[in-house]
Amino acid sequence: PALMLLEAPRQLYVLELSSFQLETTHSLKAAAATVLNISEDHMNRYPLGLQQYRGAKLKIYHNAAVCVVNADDTFTLPVRGYGARCVSFGVGCGDYYLSQRAGKTWLMARGEPLLDCAEMTVGGRHNYTNSLAALALADSIGVPHAASLAALRQFHGLTHRFELVHDRHGVRWINDSKATNVGSTEAALYGLEVAGTLHLLLGGDGKSADFTPLSPLVQGDRVQLYCFGQDAVQLAFLRPEVATLTETLEQAMRIVGTRVRAGDLVLLSPACASLDQFSNFKVRGEVFTRLAREVG
User: Fold this and answer.
1) Tens of pLDDT, residues 113-163
2) Which residue ranges make up each domain of the chain?
3) What's the CATH fold of domain 163-295?
4) By the 8 A CB rule, do 254 and 164 touch?
């Protein structure tokens, strides 16, 4: 719990706050705050829809000295819009952005190249834009660039977040169990490069979300969907002709194991909460990892 951090003096506290926590937060005065993106989530809790959910998320900006906003997602702007306390990041625009230079992708800050993304251990556009947001937050509180860039070079990613857990016979198995909403799965799929077939595992409790934003990202001849859990049928409607329905993740994984070939990628990015069949997303990811090593 965050309040336990108050037991010892600290120079800086770094908190990740959910919309649930922010609903009852009134006195937070952050040195810097960010909302990385906003898409439908917890719609079973917010019956008035996306704007009600957004309202809860945006409370993180109340009394913040600096608001770090996503230039590619206007929903992340404070209620009163872009103001003097705002700093932006984005793919190709904003104060912090990505730039292509001599065939390489660079992290940029106000026109200054900071880091060649090839020097980072983690890859993918979503990781690069998250790095831009982290740089903006660090800069706003005076962390030296040298320290921030050293951290980005050394960061190996977190478990259950687009984590490569098995690579054998030319098949990669990626655990993205933390993708508990549609927006997170969109981020995982956007710009994904696969030499062979993408085997995408979707399923769980969708929390009344609209899955249709995933539809354009699962098109093509080399995509297979495996839908399990509470909202499996709804997920299969994304592309019924390539969807395999199962009751559990394990059943889906055993089918995947019989189909994969060299060049394929198996991705668990469920777009759903795990609580219909697992105690949390970590347990779901651990089950996926165990089965990947078993069937792969």
Assistant:
1) 999 999 999 888 889 999 999 999 999 999 999 999 999 999 999 999 999
2) 2-154, 163-295
3) Protein-Tyrosine Phosphatase; Chain A (3.90.190)
4) no
